[in-house]
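Re-run with default settings, no changes from the original entry. Doing this only to confirm the output is reproducible before filing.
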Amino acid sequence: MNHESIIWNYIRSNHVLSITSFHNGDVWAANLFYACDYEQKRLLFMTSEINTKHGALMLANSHVVGTICDQTVDVAKLKGLQYTAVATIVHAPEALDVYMQQFPMAKHHQETLWMITFTALKLTDNSAGFGTKYTWNIE
């Protein structure tokens, strides 16, 4: 299996990411639920662009970094992903459909739908051998 497939399998098996946004020396991190839109190779999440610090920063600077990681105490099974990406607001109805399929409880939640388009990813997978790394540079 190639690195891209291994990485996307990991992304598809999770649903929470951390994201860090920054602009003019101001930095903020957040944890968010995401839906994986595998067909379009993007992640979808909801957050306010004006009522959250990370949303306001992403509007000012769309470049973000973040992680997706397992919660296990067994170091031999630990997996975690680091990424760089661009986060933008998405208005496409099909993107909203993908998000709502995974999180139907968000139907009445009036937040903005965003997408993450990756520029680089690195997955560490100790289950494949301690310190095993898989990388995928999109740019």
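The chain has one domain: 3-137. Strands lie at 16-23, 26-33, 35-37, 42-47, 63-69, 79-89, 112-125, 133-137.
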